[in-house]
Amino acid sequence: MLTKQRKQLILSRLKQEGQIVAATLSTELGLSEDTIRRDLRALAAEGHLQRVHGGALPASAALGDFAARTQVEPAGKQAIARAAAALVRPGQVVFLDGGTSCEQLALQLPVSLAATVVTHSPTIALALVPHPRIEVVLIGGRLFKHSVVAVGAAALESIRRIHADTYFMGVTGVHPQTGLTTGDLEEAHIKRALMTQSAETWVLASSEKLNAASNCVIAPCTEATGLIVERSVPKRATSAFEKLGLSVLRA
């Protein structure tokens, strides 16, 4: 079997089964594991998959720049944002992540809502300017331009001084085994700190993020309260998360 044919087979199998186990595939094809791993490395370098121990998972489609990500699943993100906004109660302190899903959430909050929103995203802060009764606390630090959020030691120190009722987390990948993932290590540290300081964590998981993975792990899925997904997502795509004890809210 030629290299091109093997790669096409790997991508087809990944789409069908949601994962590749290198040892299993090498036995099935009568090839060495080194050959399969070499193909996986090449496909990962091309952005087609995310390598993990023993094989590979689908690569997240949510790793483009901020402008590009606004075009990914816009209707789904709006539906998820409306469901998330309905969870916010008057008087609460809410951590609101950066990213396009959380920007939609900010836009969906009622103008009459009286609450405190803490965010490390200037984009989110600006979206909340028209909300006269929402107090906005903007966390500062080094600007990570890819996601338009503050990261670094200064941001972590500020976050650790605040306790929130709810954290709405944006991710690039959610997988029952790999966990909650994103594409940048510093951003992963910030998200983990926000999670630690919150009584509840709801993950905004549009369909392209489900059962996909990125290279930086934020936390195991079991540390989140639940996922907010589109109503159209099939039950089989969320059943593994429910078995882990997560609530799944369909928008």
Could you walk me through the main structural features you see in this protein, from its secondary elements to its overall organization?
The chain has two domains: 3-58, Arc Repressor Mutant, subunit A, CATH 1.10.10.10; 66-250, Rossmann fold, CATH 3.40.50.1360. The strands form four sheets. The chain has a seven-stranded parallel beta sheet. The chain has 251 residues and is an alpha/beta fold. It has helices at 3-17, 22-29, 33-45, 66-69, 74-85, 100-108, 122-127, 153-159, 185-196, 235-243, and strands at residues 20-21, 49-52, 55-58, 93-96, 115-119, 134-138, 142-144, 149-151, 164-170, 173-175, 179-182, 198-204, 216-219, 226-229, 247-250.
Sheet with the most strands, sense and barrel status: 7 strands, parallel
Uncertain segments are: none
CATH topology of the largest domain: Rossmann fold
| % residues in beta strands | 25-35%
Mean pLDDT across all residues, rounded?
Answer: 90
CATH architecture group name of the largest domain? 3-Layer(aba) Sandwich
Apparent shape: elongated
Structural class: alpha/beta
In which order are the strands of the major sheet placed? 6-5-4-9-12-14-15
Give the number of helices: 10
- The string of secondary-structure elements, in order, is HEHHEEHHEHEHEEEHEEEHEEEHE
Number of strands: 15
Q: What is the top-level CATH class of the largest domain? A: Alpha Beta
Helix content: 25-40%
In total, the number of domains comes to 2
Integer-rounded radius of gyration:
19 Å
Query: What is the end-to-end distance?
Result: 45 Å
